[in-house]
Write a structure and sequence with these properties.
- The complex is a heterotrimer of chains A (260), B (361) and C (336).
- Chain A has helices at 4-11, 55-63, 85-90, 108-118, 134-145, 161-173, 191-202, 217-223, 241-246, 248-255; strands at 17-26, 29-39, 44-48, 70-75, 78-79, 93-95, 179-183, 209-213, 226-231, 234-239.
- Chain A is of the alpha/beta class and 260 residues long.
- Chain A folds into two domains: 1-92 and 177-260, Rossmann fold, CATH 3.40.50.300; 101-176, no CATH class.
- In chain A, the strands form two sheets. Chain A has a six-stranded mixed sheet, with helices on both faces.
- In chain A, helix 4 (108-118) packs across helix 5 (134-145) and helix 4 (108-118) runs parallel beside helix 6 (161-173).
- The radius of gyration of chain A is 18 Å and the shape is globular.
- Chain C has one domain (42-327): ABC transporter involved in vitamin B12 uptake, BtuC (Orthogonal Bundle), CATH 1.10.3470.
- Chain C has 14 helices and two strands.
- The relative contact order of chain C is 0.17.
- Classes of the chains: A alpha/beta (260), B mainly alpha (361), C mainly alpha (336).
- The B-C interface holds B 1-4, 80, 133, 136-137, 139-141, 143-145, 147-149, 151-152, 155-156, 159-162, 269-270, 273, 276-277, 280, 314, 316-317, 319-320, 322-324, 326-327, 330-331, 334 and C 73, 75, 77, 128-132, 134-136, 138-143, 145-147, 149-150, 270, 274, 277-278, 280-281, 285, 310-315, 317-318, 321-322, 325-326, 329-330.
- The structure holds adenosine-5'-diphosphate and magnesium ion.
- Residues 55-56, 98 of chain A line the site of magnesium ion (MG).
Chain lengths: 260, 361, 336
Amino acid sequence: MDSVAHRLSAVGAGAALELRGVTRLFGALAALTDVTITVRPGERRAVLGSNGAGKTTLFNCITGDFPPSSGTIRFFGEDITQFPPYERIRRGLRRTYQISALFPGLTVQDNVYLACRGVSRGRFSFLRPGQNDALMHATENLVQAVHLAAVKDQRVAELAHGQQRQLEIALALAGAPRFILFDEPAAGLSPTERRELIEILTSLPAHIGYIIIEHDMDVALRVVESVTMMHNGRIFKEGPPREIESDPEVQELYLGGGHE
Amino acid sequence: MSLLQSTQFRPDPSATTARRAFIRAWPDFQNPAAWLVALILIIMPLIASGFFLIEIFATTLILGIIALSLMFLAGYGGMVSLMQLTIAGFAGYMVAVFGVSGNANISLGWPWWLATPMALALATLFGTLGGALAVRTEGIYTIMITLAIGAAFYYFTNQNWAIFNGHTGINTVATPHFWGVDWRADIAFYYVTLGIAAICYFAVQYVSRAPFGLALQGVRDNSRRMAALGFNPNAHRIAAYAFAAFIAGLGGVLQVWNYRQISPGSVSVGACIDILIIAVVGGITRPIGPFIGAFIFVLLRTFALDVLIKFGLDGNRFRLLIGLGFLAIVFWSSDGVIGLWERWRRHHVSSAKRTGGGRHG
Amino acid sequence: MARFIERHPAWALIAIIAIAVVLWLVFAIWPPGLEAAIGRKRVFLNAVLNGITLGGLYFLVASGFTLIFGLMRNVNLAHGSLYLFGGYIGYAISTWTGSWILSFIVAFIVVALVGVILQLAVFRRMEGQDLRQTMVTIGLSIVFADLMLWVFGGDFYQIQTPAWLIGPIQLPLLTAIKSSGEPVYLQYPLVRLVIFAASVVIGVAMWLALNRTRIGMIVRAGVDDRDILAATGVRIQLVFVLVFALGAGLAGIAGVVGGTFQSLSPGEDTRFLLASLVVVIVGGMGSIPGAALGAVIIGLAEQLGSVYIPTYAIVVTFLIMVLVLALRPQGLLARR
Ligand SMILES: Nc1ncnc2c1ncn2[C@@H]1O[C@H](COP(=O)(O)OP(=O)(O)O)[C@@H](O)[C@H]1O
Ligand SMILES: [Mg+2]
């Protein structure tokens, strides 16, 4: 509905995310080599690439789960390369994990509440939230938004896979995100759940940009406006979805490569 | 951590949502047995003799408080700290050092209402620093580091005469007297202990559902994800150590008032491990566990001698009994005796249902 | 070595200066001013040698502990009990047969067997549950301690040093020059030196076994990455049992050593458990060279501490641990 230009003007100029020469080594293995990416605020982008291409590692470097071996990362102009993960999150960065990283011992509601609490004040509060606590309302809304209201008092360990994936997304939407990294959110979802996922992604406010890692081209191409192709830890192609889809090199390496 | 994770409290699926949320927050208010226990504890001085009041119940409550601090760290934070008794002992030593005791060359002679807060503050500081050290590594290392801290403190109290008076320790420590009451007299002291134990118990219960406690459980389950939600996991861990140290310090103050003396024997490695045993035997997933464990421990310690002799066995084998009992619990229950009891009850209920259903069908 | 200097020039410089100072202190004749300030050189040399030889003993205990932890993630808090048990066995054998050497062999075999039984009967059932295993080792340490107290009582035992090792020997280390100009050399108990040499030999043998044999390779790979073990398809249980037996057996030998140059009594188990913990925390989990380095550091700290600051000696040991945890939490020589 809204054009790229419209979104840009809504947020202002300058890059949301800017990676320069990011390299990450695991011992002798270079999982990322000299990656340079610029993402505008509000931009929605897919990262594609075969297994082991370094997509998740790219996310880990951006969030600080694993710091890059070299290179710099800027988030809305600020150099966050040396920041611990929680400082980056507090600045509006969010992520989901490819393998659900939830709190199995807590209920759905507590999981989401923690996410809301993590990006607001009072993380160390010794006072229980009251009925009219603003964060409790935010939690309720978020639980509702990802269709988990029916199971909100269940322990996460008892949820079905699809529900866990949904909760994973809810955790990334808490607070006021400015930029979100989705790591294969659709993996293992049923067609209905996929539709719900697409709906959630497309109904995000226009100023929230994201990068999504997604193997399913049908999902990926419906929710993004640009695509980055990765292979062996390097970026080898960037462009709008149509262009990428029809690129012969990409076809050979990835789309025709029988990755399924 | 599998022990901890496999034993989370499973709420009863049949309860309604709101009720469940309330029970989760305050399980005790729904439980008639809890009210009964509370009543018995309150009227205990009418029932029990001074010996039982102090040697059994006050001692149980004090050990329970110290073990509660371990339960808080282990159950909610996933950090099994063996230095909780050391912190309690440190608080006890500080009461003796700052307050009044028979060792006038060491004690500074402050009144109890100054010495006690000082002791608590220093114990909390001790625990916080120890915690800051322990969180440098994760998981099973915690046990090693905290045990090393505990053992180092024990050997230090033995070696050091200037502050800790070496292996003789500090004797005839003064206890509070005010409003015309000797608060160390049996009944008064029992109520002091009961009151503080209750406060600690409900505080832990309350905090476990407050943002701080929830965040701690989040750190226990997945600290990397907590960081990706905006939390600083190590700061939470250290804060948990501080909170637990304050509770342990309260227990230590009560303990030194109880025995009126403190010596390296009170902070020995064996005693540190006893606290772990108490917590694990009682169950480390809920705050009531440590008190149940302490009760069993104190009963065994007090009566094992007589009982063993009655059965024609060597009365000195109390520790053997403790060790074997502990091993049995670790083998058969992942949540101490509460876990055993619950499993038994569930089994009982389901088998009763089955036979009942059979008759109708 | 060269890489370390390249990477941490400041630390390397400090280390070199410290080594130079120690060497000077050991080999030079002390000027009278120094003797007035910190006491006789003989006292210092004795403390250093005591520290190093005690380090040898600590190494024997801690190397087994660190191997068992490194490979099986089992924090064996009953390790001190195995030490004490070995000591009592050694005492029994040496008073019964009069053979010191035999007491080592028997202590090794018996305690290793205990280790095998523990691994097969207990720990194999709870693989991967490190907290539960640790709890079990705590329970075992209590049971063992009480059983040993039952059998051996609370007395002190000392294992008889064999005649051919009794008495001091003269070392080529000057302690002073007499006014007549005659040099005075240090006298030091032979048995401690022999035992230290033996622990060095054992250490080197372990290192070689780990680095040059097939089983050693498997063990090392397992310490570095546990998943590899399952992937290689080796008889992993057999390796576990062997390592547990070796670690326990070493603790048993250490018990005989400790019983010879110190004494055996209830409470020694805790002392040596603590020593192993600190040595391994300082040296680095799962690393044999780390255990050796940590053992010597802690041995020296304890002995020098007890000579020069007797009421704060334990604090020195503890501060070393704190320092290591603060600067290099994984331990000095650990890989990660
Ligand atoms: N924690 C890690 N330790 C060692 N190697 C890793 C780690 N994480 C990723 N790798 C390696 O980095 C490469 C890229 O992995 P990843 O980023 O997960 O790929 P993708 O998400 O594109 O499938 C792979 O070869 C993988 O084995
Ligand atoms: Mg991936």
